[in-house]
Write a structure and sequence with these properties.
Blueprint lengths: L1 H89 L1
Length: 91
C-alpha cells in the first residue's frame, strides 16, 4: 500500500502544473470570446444608432412636409392628366 501512495505522489505533482496550464488556457479563451462579444455589441449599437437617426429623419420628413409632399404629388398627377388630354385632342 505504501508503494501505491508513493507512486501517486509524482503523478499528482506532475498533474498540478498541467491543470494550471489548462486553466490559464481556458481563461484566455474566455477573454478572447468576451472581447469578440463586446466588439460585436459595439458594432450592433452603432448600427442601431445609425438606423434610429435615419428613422428620425424620415419621421421629420413625414411630419413636417408630409402634407406638402402629398399635395405636390397630386399636382404632378393632375398636370400629367391634363397634358395627356391635350395630346389626345391634338393628336
Amino acid at each position: 500500500m505504501p508503494e501505491l501512495i508513493a507512486m501517486f505522489i509524482p503523478i499528482l505533482a506532475l498533474s498540478i502544473p498541467i491543470i494550471a496550464i489548462w486553466t490559464r488556457h481556458q481563461r484566455a479563451l474566455a477573454e478572447i470570446q468576451a472581447r469578440g462579444r463586446d466588439n460585436q455589441a459595439m458594432q450592433s449599437q452603432a448600427h442601431t444608432a445609425e438606423l434610429e437617426d435615419r428613422l428620425r429623419v424620415l419621421e421629420r420628413i413625414i411630419t413636417d412636409k408630409g402634407y406638402d409632399v402629398a399635395t405636390q404629388i397630386e399636382a404632378l398627377r393632375d398636370t400629367r392628366r391634363s397634358d395627356a388630354r391635350i395630346e389626345d385632342k391634338v393628336g
